[in-house]
Amino acid sequence: SDYVEYNMYAHPKGISDSVLVQNYIYNHPRFLQNNRKVIDQTPKLIELFSDMYIPYPFAKEKYGHCVAPMGGGMEHQTMTTLSEFSLLLVAHELAHQWFGDLVTCASFQDVWINEGFASYSEYLTLERMPDWGDATDWMKNAHWMSSFETGSIFVPKEEAFSNWRIFNNGLTYKKGAALVHYIRYMVNNDDLFFDVLRGFLLQYKYSTATGLDFKAFLEKKTGLDFTQCFNQWYFGEGFPVFDIAWTTVSNQQLDILIKQIGKSASNPLFVTDLDILVKRGSRPDTLLRLPIRSNKELFSVKISGEVSELVIDPKYYVLKEVRSNQYLKDLPTEDNFVVCNSQIGSKQNLTVRFAEPIDGPCIVKLTDPLGKQVLDERIVNKKTKTDVSMKKLLKETYILSVEYAGNRYVRKIEKTAN
What we know:
Helix content is 27%, strand content 33%. It is an alpha/beta fold and 418 residues long.
């Protein structure tokens, strides 16, 4: 084409010299005028990604764009070809300089290494540059687009030669980005999460990696086990569907009943944490992080004030469908859930009571706030209650869970000074 150059420079941290941003654009009087606002953001994006990830890996050469009459964009090392300038398209293709060109998927079965992280870079762009759009809306839309697809992010071997399957927008791109967002949630520490991304890029730079390579590095860096996470979200199909009902007790306690079906023939239960934002009118909102470990859970939380609304997963960390979220004056009582005293004196026993004599194995567990298990008791007889001694337990707060008949009951226990 009859191109003209429109060039500028980026100044990312960690790079001693400026980085040339070289743009070959159509020699048309209105083209630059119509696209300049986005083109001029490219240096800022290079600086942003260099800060979040590692310094732009091809700084000794350049970065740039060449326009052509094509669909979307296609990155090449140091030069992206695209049809038009939109901020998220520019951000996505630029992110491939790190995820795709510096580190490349070992095969198209693990194309998530390229496209999942590049797509999540769109979300991060909006998170760090909110004047250009809302990041939460982007993730909400990604969840919506993922919900129409069946299959896994990981591309099965028999489909690894199908362009349509490899580059499936709902699975490879949108669900792939949702998985990175979910991993960030489970790490639960942004400094550590971005350290993982930086370390992974450094370890595999100018080489290839698989999804399991990333998992292994993630586990080594965080000390967490992501086997279940990857089995559910990377190799597995579908997502959880939740029905949520809640009620309050004398404006002092919030009870939340969560029922789940897995929208997958092979995965009837997704084990996950789930954030719930409790709105209380003029009082400050409270964010709860609830562990979902069975298809039916009842959570009781001590909370003061009138609850007006529950917002489920406000930052869209978990790919899911919330089929119902309703206040009920009385929660269903057909299940043999546990009741117990939630505040106990320092020398008292914790009493766990059952609505009727249990019939079959029942597991009573007590953990401290850091997740250390201090009790794991299996009850198999016809008891209607069991006592747990709190005398030797030094912390002020514990989490009680009781697993019985496929259900799980969770309650926070506070140890008082009396």
